[in-house]
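Help!! Second protein's tokens look totally different from the first
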Amino acid sequence: MTHHPDVLVVDDDPALRDIMGAACAALGHPAALAADGAGALDLLARIVTIRLALVDVVLGAGATGLALAADIRTLHPDVEVVLLSGLGGSIDAASGGDALILAKPLPLDKLRAVLDGKHRGG
């Protein structure tokens, strides 16, 4: 049986991208993987089952997850974006728009809550 990805992981670091993808799969959420914004938007256009994008804030080569998050919200408003940052407190929460910004590394219990949609209060 083929499981279609319901999560997109976007990180320019191949090791981190692979680890996050494997963790998502182990928690029952197959993930599509992209190294940059262009790859992410291509996958979102082709894989209609994706409902959540986990996006690194810094994507290398001057690209930002913040810009990608804005593109995803515009082109795929049904896909939730969660930004991941290894930069600690140096990211202004307002700059992420309505995207949640979480610190990397993301503990498995927090990842599970995000994947299961239990990460937002209320």
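Here's the second one for comparison:
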Amino acid sequence: MNLKAAAEAIIFASKGITLEKLAKILRITTEETEKILNELADEYNLPDHGVELKRLGDVYRFYTKAEYAQLVQSVGKSIYTKLSVSQLEIVAIIMINGPSTLQQISEIRGKDSSALVRSLHKMGVLTRKRYKNSYIYNLSQRFKELLMIEEVPGDIAEHLQTATPSPSSSEE
């Protein structure tokens, strides 16, 4: 069996996989798997490929190269391109703070967000899970895949939170 071809097929079919899981499936060491992944990444970086192999967090996945993004986007028109500023604000809140209740989202925004959250849930941008007498909302896996994010790294979220001026600080 060609291990490089097998790794390529598994990554493609899984829409992303960790080094450890791929090594286990291929029944080889993580060092051997990492060597194969590096070879694949080098091959896909050549100009005759429209995709590239990237590692995002600890997940390896194929992504469209930037120069072909417009072409690919024209094939699959996304409803996500029509999100309003207010809807994007809710997405940003959840990206930074993690799964949140409607009450938490509304408190952060300073206004009722129920209609916007409901519309984002219907669009498939948000998922919800029952929590006590409420729901906890999170970004859907499909939306995360479209944005090519697994999660917002903690240091970025921390930076964004500290970069926001507090209401008590004022410039004179």
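Reply: Different proteins will give different token patterns, so don't panic. Residues 129 and 136 are 5 Å apart (CA to CA).
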